[in-house]
Amino acid sequence: MVFNFLKSSYQSLKKVLAKTGSLLGNKIRALFVGEIDEESLEKLEKLFYEADLGVQMAHELTEKVRQLHRKNSKLTGDQLLDVIKNEILKSLPPLSSIDKKSVPHVILIVGVNGNGKTTSCAKLAKRFKDAGQKVLLGGADTFRAAAMEQLELWASRLQIDMVKGSAKSDPAAVAFDALTAGKARGADVVIVDTAGRLHTKTHLMQELEKILRVCKKVDPHAPHEILLVLDATTGQNAIDQAKTFHQHTPLTGLILTKLDGTAKGGIVLSIQRQLALPVKFVGVGEGMDDLEPFDSTQFVNALFE
Ligand code: GDP
Prior knowledge:
Blueprint: H1 10-19, H2 25-33, H3 38-50, H4 55-71, H5 77-90, E1 105-111, H6 117-130, E2 135-139, H7 145-158, E3 161-164, H8 171-184, E4 189-193, H9 201-218, E5 225-231, H10 236-248, E6 253-257, H11 267-275, E7 279-283, E8 291-293, H12 296-304
Parallel strand pairs: 1-4, 1-5, 2-3, 2-4, 5-6, 6-7
Antiparallel strand pairs: 7-8
The structure holds guanosine-5'-diphosphate.
């Protein structure tokens, strides 16, 4: 079963991209109005690069346009844009939605502090709740009292059940309690927030591995999703973080936050390509409704409209 209600909103994606001035379609069309020559192709590559599509993708896409133009100089700007869009989509990991394999469906949220992990847990919980799903939140970031209080505050405002540990208690024990409670209370989804202090990297990774083992005691298939929260405004740093986490915890996807704070929407595409991991949600603001399921096709269409 697939969570069909997790549909992406084209309009809100477009609004965020427009607000940050990262819509590329019109800039590229303006470039293609005149003669397509080496100069305009160079400008095209620069546009791709500035949008954070990454050096390699920027180069490959420009090369594709160059070849096509050589073969057929009558191609219009819109036709070339279509080719660009298709090339990008072809290079991304396949579109995947959240598959609901067992009940409760367990989602582990990991990531470095400050990336928007706790906020994303609450936003995600709200989305499921609004769709009529029974949600339970697990507060396993026992190291940060403030984070746990923040999640508790969201949980009470949203009227969502929460299981939390006491300060400095074992995060794996909290995850175990949350899953057990989720099962006993008939929750459809359990979302577990975890700690993210990277300065004690080895410890953090061991802690995450322990959480994984403990989840499996309650349900051998849990967690069904491990989503890494990354901050879109941190560029290459986000990619390095993802590589570290992925080595220790088999990530199933990404939540890319603060897309509203970057003029480089292309990061969503280059991150997926470099990590071969799908972006499942994007954060587009600080409000509880500012989380959008991510759909590459819609995103590429919005970016190049
Ligand atoms: P954590 O340390 O990873 O748990 O991060 P928090 O959830 O506490 O978020 C850190 C800050 O980022 C908070 O001020 C959030 O409001 C903000 N934040 C989270 N997601 C987004 C987003 O999508 N857009 C914007 N503009 N701010 C966000």
